[in-house]
Design brief:
Radius of gyration: 19 Å
CATH superfamily: Decaprenyl diphosphate synthase-like
Number of helices: 7
Distance between the termini: 33 Å
Helix content: 25-40%
Order of helices and strands: EHHEHEHEHHEEH
Oligomer: single chain
Number of domains: 1
Structural class: alpha/beta
């Protein structure tokens, strides 16, 4: 897994420092957005898909290379069946409607999480989206769907143990060796992790990968998230000093 070990430097022209390479977002607040307006929860999820479209476009414009969004967690199966079916339908509609444009715009789509248990039509659509955009490299959109970080780590540990038993790897386990078994094995670690809706937790999302990410919690509900909010998040990210355990230059 590629890593980002330094803070962004100002451009040679003296302008603003570049955007974080990888931004991860917990898209939270769809249900509360709908409830506040007297609408069904499904309406909030539908508006959340619109917010995702806006954010993908804005992220590319702002120089972000990787965007990872938390769409459906392994814990979300506890929700009412009708709401789960709505989330499946919205993922399907998003891919069907946007795949051609994403492909044309050079976006590579990945979906991380468990494929087992997904409806066959959803699993097939996910495979298609990944297959048809595999050659793209301009922008990387990763959707965490049926994903839980603890589950991911357990699956990775199990896979590594099996490889060890088969003699395919050595017992000298390193970070890099273990990361080769994670869902995000060919992605850089996130620089900035944003959660909308005012909640202050990361809810089993990218626990390993976000070890050194800057965390930002914003009060806006996800359906209202837009380019201005993303630009503000990047500005606040630039105010942070990322030391990765080292001492800041000039510190005594």
């Amino acid at each position: 897994m590629a890593r980002t070990g330094t803070s962004p430097e100002p451009s040679q022209s003296g302008g603003e420092p570049p955007a974080p390479q990888h931004v991860a977002i917990i898209m939270d607040g769809n249900g509360r957005w709908a409830k506040a307006r007297g609408l069904p929860r499904a309406a909030g999820h539908e508006r959340g898909v619109e917010a995702l479209r806006r954010t993908v476009e804005a992220a590319g414009d702002l120089g972000i290379c990787y965007l990872t969004v938390f769409s459906f967690s392994t814990e979300n199966w506890r929700r009412p069946a009708a709401e789960v079916n709505t989330l499946f339908a919205l993922l399907k509609a998003y891919v069907q409607r946007d795949l051609a444009r994403l492909k044309e715009d050079g976006v590579r789509v990945r979906v991380i999480g468990q494929r087992a248990g997904l409806p066959p039509d959803i699993a097939e659509l996910v495979d298609r989206a990944e297959r048809e955009t595999a050659a793209n490299s301009k922008f990387h959109l990763t959707i965490a769907f049926n994903y839980g970080s603890r589950n991911e780590i357990l699956r990775a540990a199990t896979a590594y143990a099996r490889a060890l038993a088969a003699g395919e790897v050595t017992a000298d386990l390193t970070d890099e060796a273990f990361e080769a078994y994670l869902d995000t094995r060919d992605l850089p670690d996130p620089d900035l992790l944003i959660r909308t809706s005012g909640e202050y937790r990361i809810s089993n999302f990218l626990l390993w990968q976000a070890a050194y990410a800057e965390l930002l919690f914003v009060d806006v509900q996800w359906p209202d998230f837009n380019r201005d909010h993303l630009e503000s998040a990047i500005s606040r990210y630039h105010e942070r000093e990322r030391r990765f355990g080292a001492v800041a230059p000039g510190a005594t």
